[in-house]
Design goal:
Blueprint lengths: L5 H30 L6 H34 L16 H22 L2 H30 L9 H38 L1
Helix pairs in contact: 1-2, 1-3, 1-4, 2-3, 2-4
Length: about 190
């Protein structure tokens, strides 16, 4: 199996960090706007984007340091491994590669944290994701609460399917539940007697 290129692995790591940042920002936007009733102002969320990227960069740096410590220990070990994270001399090359990957991810995340355009793009993507979530919830709620038989073109056909489901699934579950309840009551009476 061909080993992925270092640049590809780093790009993937940066992409995952950007996705995590967008998710954190989306949640912050939803809380601020919906729960607190605040208006949306992109400038207010840019510091949050920067802080999230810097936190993820610090995590990547910590991972690089931990991997380097593991690499140093592994160099002296030549016996069989006891598990997944019990590294040996044959793992040194992979650990060095992982350290480099983490260091490069951290560098790129720190660079993005200083790029105002990048931060605004993350905030905008998070705003769009927040709006899509809100719109989806509104649409779903309206479909459920506003459902009326006279507005559903295939109501009769779907009603028949729903009734069959009630008879074949729900009533069978209810009967099984009733048997369990009855059996448990009989067991309790036998214990009490």
């Amino acid at each position: 199996m061909k080993r992925p290129k270092l640049a590809d692995v780093v790009s993937e790591g940066v992409y995952i960090a950007a996705a995590a940042t967008r998710l954190a920002l989306k949640n912050r936007i939803l809380v601020d706007i919906l729960a607190a009733g605040e208006g949306f102002d992109a400038d207010r969320f840019v510091p949050d984007a920067r802080e999230t990227l810097l936190t993820l960069a610090a995590e990547a740096e910590e991972d690089a340091e931990r991997t380097e410590r593991e690499r140093r220990r592994a160099r002296r070990r030549h016996s069989e491994s006891d598990g997944t994270h019990d590294y040996r001399a044959r793992d040194v090359r992979n650990l060095r590669r992982r350290r480099k990957q983490s260091e490069k991810v951290a560098v790129q995340l720190r660079a993005r944290a200083e790029d105002e355009d990048e931060l605004r793009a993350l905030v905008e993507a998070a705003r769009e994701a927040a709006w899509a979530e809100v719109a989806g919830n509104i649409d779903s709620t309206l479909r459920i609460e506003a459902a009326r038989p006279d507005l559903e073109p295939d109501y009769d056909q779907m009603r028949e399917a729903r009734m069959q489901s009630v008879m074949l699934v729900d009533l069978a579950r209810l009967a099984a539940h009733q048997r369990r309840v009855s059996r448990d009551a009989d067991d309790e009476e036998a214990v009490d007697a």
